[in-house]
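Lab notebook, bench 4. The sequencing result for the construct came back, and we need a structural model before the next group meeting so we can plan mutations. Quick request posted to the team channel:

Model the 3D structure of this chain.
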Amino acid sequence: MVINTNTAAINASTYLAQSQSMLNKSLARLSSGSKLVSPADDAAGFAVSTRFDAQINRTQAAADGVSNATSFQQTQDGFLGKVGDALNRMSELSTLSLDSTKSDSDRSLYNAEFTKLSSYITDLGTKDFNGVSLFNGNSLNVVTDSDGHTVATTAVNLGASAYTTATSASVSTTANATSALTNVKAAITQLATDRANVGANMSVLNSYGSQLSVLKDNLSAANSRIKDVDVAQESTQYAKYNILVQAGTAMLAQANSSPQSALRLLG
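Done. Here's the predicted structure in token form:
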């Protein structure tokens, strides 16, 4: 029996320190909800999870951009619907002005409304969405994935000749009304094409939005399997290490008291 070197106490202290370390790690995992409290827990998994986190954030940003672009297209279509109403009325006024029972005085009244509607359409062509022109003929390049790839939407230009020719027309005379009707019909045809293109834009953007949503869900699930703690399993580990710490503490106390038995030999 020796006094200077208490091997049992040294061993007990070592095991207690190990158990305490594992208990602290288990407690950190449970409190944070992550089993990757530090890169040392799983170096490769930590690296993969970090890349997943960044890709998930980029994917969400792209999804937000697609959503904003969809709102842009919806706003465009709303205004174009009003343009359609105005053009329909203008075509009606043109036809009314061709009525041979109407005098030029009557046609001047029709022309007053026709001119107001033309100005209305021209004004709509100046509208914007968050500072971005809706109808200047420039397409939007919409980011569709986390790598920055884009898709260009089909643009609408209310300054196109089909529209400007119609809005610059007049129904003040029979001859003018004949020309105006032809021009307005051409503008209606152009409008139908533009609204179809806007509809196609919205359709493809909805598809990209759904794709990004599915991608984000899958990336989040994959990332969860790497870094999220299994609470049931970790709770079991926590209970295990808690018991080991308590047992180690008791055994260290017991080992520290063992050398006292040497005093009996000296008595």
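Residues 43-227 form a domain with the f41 fragment of flagellin, N-terminal domain fold (CATH 1.20.1330.10).
Will bring this to the meeting.
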